[in-house]
Amino acid sequence: MTQTLRYPKPQILAQIPLKHHAVIEASAGTGKTYTLEHLIIEIMLKPEARVGVEEILVVTYTERATSELRSRVRALLERILTTRPEDVELKPGDAFWEIDESTRLYLESQVYAFDRAPIHTIHGFCRRILSENAFYLRKLFDQTHEDSSHLFERAFHKALRTEIAVESPLKELLEHWLSRHSFEELQRGLYVVCTTPADIRPKFNLYDLERALTQLHERRDAEWQGLESLASNSVPTDFMEAQEIAMEMFKVAEDFVKGRPIPDLLVSVDHRVEGWQRLKKVNGLRNRCPALDTMLLEFPPLKAAVLQAFAPRVMAAHIREKERGFYDFDDMLTTVWERMKDPSDPTAAALIQFLRMRYKYALVDEFQDTDEVQWNIFKTLFFESPTNRLFVIGDPKQAIYGFRGADVHTYLQAKEQMAKRSPVVPLKQNFRSTPRVIQAYNAVFNQNDRNPFFDAQKISYDEPVEPGKEFLRALDKHGNDIVPFSMVRLDKGGEKIYGDDLFDSYGHYIADEILKILGDEPIFLQDEGELRRVGPSDIFVLARTRREEHRIGEVFRDRGVPFAFYKLEGLFATPEAAEVLDVLRAIDEPHLEDRRIKAWMTHFFEVDIEDLGRCRDLPETHPIFDRLIRWSELAQARDFERLFIDILDRSGIVRREIFDRHSERELTNYQHIFELLLEASHGSNTAFKDLIETLSSWVSGTKHAGDDDRDIQRLESERDAVQIMTFHKSKGLEADVVFLFGGISRNSFDEFTTLHWGHRRILHIGKPYAPKAIELARHEIAEEDRRLLYVGITRARARIVVPFASRAKDIHKFDGMMRMLNDRLISMQRSRTLNELLFEEITIFPWDENAPRVLPPRIVRQEIQLETLRAFNEDLRPKSFVISSYSRMKRFTGGYKATAADDLDGTAEPFEAEPAQIPSAWRKEEELPGGALQGVFLHQILEDLEYFSEPLGLDDWRSLPATTKVFDTNFKRYAIDPTYRNYCESIVHATLSAQIELPDSKTMPRLGQASRVLKEVEFMFPIPEGEFGLDIRPDGPFRIERGWIKGFIDLLFEYDSKIYFADWKSDTLENYSKDLLEHHVAKNYGTQASLYGLAVARMLRLHTKEEYDARFGGYLYFFLRGMNATEGVWSARPEFEDLLNYESDLVAAPIY
Hints:
Layout: E1 5-8, E2 22-26, H1 32-44, E3 56-60, H2 63-82, E4 96-99, H3 101-112, E5 119-121, H4 122-132, H5 134-137, E6 144-145, H6 148-164, H7 170-178, H8 183-195, E7 199-201, H9 206-218, H10 220-228, H11 236-257, H12 262-270, H13 273-283, H14 285-288, H15 290-298, H16 302-323, E8 326-327, H17 329-340, H18 346-358, E9 361-364, H19 372-383, E10 389-394, H20 408-419, E11 424-427, E12 429-430, H21 435-444, E13 466-467, E14 472-475, E15 485-490, H22 499-518, E16 524-527, E17 530-533, E18 539-543, H23 546-559, E19 563-565, H24 575-588, H25 593-600, H26 609-612, H27 623-636, H28 640-650, H29 653-660, H30 665-681, H31 688-700, E20 722-726, H32 727-730, E21 735-741, E22 752-757, E23 760-765, H33 771-793, E24 796-804, H34 817-830, E25 839-844, H35 860-872, E26 882-884, H36 886-893, H37 919-922, H38 932-944, H39 954-958, H40 961-973, H41 981-993, E27 996-997, E28 1003-1004, E29 1012-1022, E30 1043-1055, E31 1058-1065, H42 1074-1084, H43 1086-1099, H44 1105-1111, E32 1112-1119, E33 1129-1132, H45 1136-1148
Parallel strand pairs: 2-10, 2-11, 3-5, 3-9, 6-8, 7-23, 9-10, 12-13, 15-24, 15-25, 18-20, 18-21, 19-20, 21-24, 26-30, 31-32
Antiparallel strand pairs: 1-4, 14-16, 16-17, 22-23, 27-28, 29-30, 30-31, 32-33
């Protein structure tokens, strides 16, 4: 007779009664999946009546989680069956399953049946219901699944073509929309509105709006008197603005009464609503001007009005598409719920009974990421059933996917309903972190403190976790326990700390710490005697935004820290995707000149800029034209595999990218995009134009690439590397050491904001401007940020490092999510609950480029040797082939770095300022702060804008749709505070309007008068070697021994038959007089001017003094912050002999 096996099981299972429903709350690191897999076995071995694996429905959040859970449950079953009784050692009090012979036979049968185990995502579960119950659901048996964005796009275009563009007032609204926005933006907006289950705000009600306009017109005099009664109690500027708004709105009401249509009026009011909301809050205008207030409240922004007016037509077209047999992911859920929500319907009752008979138990994982439709399905099938049972597992503290449609408020409501007749079971043991880390963050999240981190009314930390691994320790090289929580404070000697200061200094501190951990100051993890050293991949750096990810990545790249972006999104937003699209369009229509030119400008051809003009009339037999023709033949034959291979091979881009780039990021993206295009062409008779349209929609964002991971940029190598990721992506992961980076300043409101008012879900279109909406939006953002911080902190096994300010006011605009953590730490500091064994405050000072730095372990010895050699031989030549640049050269030779405003290319260098010359004192409060990011931001605006050739006033220029779009896009892209918009617009307008004194004493009315303009011009030429130079050309092929110099010129332009180059500078100076600029440029930009002058001369092939004098006009430095009629531009022109002398200096100089 087989001996009975006592197989150990988790103690927590005893707290989960199988006769009732249960809510299981699993804090971070408490073994949620481990508990879930054992709970499945517990249900299968239920003493009263065994439950087969096919009767237990398990729903997880992702396909990956589904696959992992399926593997783990099968492995657990097999482990139980292969374990011998004598191999088990139970301690007193341990829980266990008794596996006798009959139980063993039963489990064996379940292993054979396991392939039929219903472990699904929610969409997979609903898809199974749809396919097996088409009759109940009244659906076609033969249906086609399609990506939701593809299906919606088809409906959008049909509604646009057949209704919106032909019916009044819709067509007038469309005209106004297209005067300021694009079709793509309209499609994206309608997709959000039509697919988000929420009330829309601000409302667009035509009847209420007409009534409010009529009332305002009738009460005009009374409203004006009410406004004037506030004159003595108002700030003059506020009162004047209120008068301006009132006068404009009186005119709008008068126009309406005279018959002007509402769509025309929307544009007139659009820009005034936000200002009125701000003013009435300050001055109490609401009571004095009620009709004006009502009218402005009824007037939604143009975007809200257009989307609400068009949405019903698009939704109707969308429904018609679905009736033809098409469905998307969202339809799977809504269709199932719609067919079962009415229990009085016999068909619904039959469907519910069928599913309840099939599934006795349901286990729903990651339930904090549910939504109302999902909860309604599970509530109806299981919670409201007298015999079926529902177990939901989640953690509201980790509900961070609101942007994907998850709704933590639904979780809270469901928990409240279930808790009335079901236990709430917390998982309390943390098996991830060391006991000291757990002690530290238990103190941070202590719910009993006077100022707790979480709002106890909704989500709280009232069940602190306990260590699950008592012997897990983090040790330094001497065997001592490390301090688990580090707070890093930047000391600027009492000066205000700006975001750039903190990013730079804290970023380099992180680099230093990582290099120490990987070098001479290692950290070890000890677990029951086993010792493991922390490596690069055991370290996470968590950022709030993608921009912050790239910022710390740049620091790591500069410092030699091995790193990789974890699941970096935005493959189709990269320049590589745009270049592939340009090439494919040229292949499709190789005889269109503009298509060819754009393709030849990409890295696939790399035609020199000076040659582009001559390429317009190339014969088809020319190699680069012939290449397009050959590729076009492959495309028309639909031999896409050969086409894509040939593009990568024949273009030589693989070799150039490996040779020219510091990383393989760009090449990896090119290859990835072609693979996705090839995959998209399979399975259907895809035409080449369809493939181009697919890539175009991916790039524009109007379609998704299908799989959630397709827009993720692949890792360019498999090396062991520090992982940089956003807080959102870190969920479910863990690391030994975690650095929190970013989140200093508050993010601006998104294009769409989801709010909750009581139990109502609201989708707010555009920036909230009503006080209540702003309050709700900021509260929701703050609550999600708290949850993000919880997720970030609880990733750590051994150490957490965060930025810190002992006084929050020391940091300028410190209002982002890190402020909440900072306030909590200050509160703990003041109440003396920061245990010095668990918390340490580390002081750092502003990053100094010239200070000694921690070097990567592999190159420390080499660097020391190099410094020794340099001391003996300044003319040392490197043995390897190099690519140098102006930025690299001045890193060694010195150059300018503004302490308040960096050079626009982000590569400026330090300079010695007089003690009295403090840039923060020169900058006025309303002016844009300095920093590399701000410089890049201004640079991008000047690159994106078209230059006007005729005089154009500031207000007229800033109101142009093209101008508005450029500023809107870049303010959002770089997260620049909108309060600086007027300043930025004024200095850019001043730059484009300025009358320019050229080096040869000619005067240019404005930049727009240039006959030709090229922006962001890349150059690359051999480092001078002595044998050949600007004035000495080789007769034939020659070998390049020393390497290349490469760089980018901000602007090349032609005026009066001469070529000039210009560079944008955002330096903050005491003044911008010609005398000061002459000194400043000579001291800080002399090397750049000479190097770029040499580059332009080579690009234009100016090899003699006569050619040089005839074609090259000189260079101009535009100091954007100082632009006015008489100041701000410095221009000069080196003589040909000066360039030859500089070239000779380069021959003798070391290669940097």
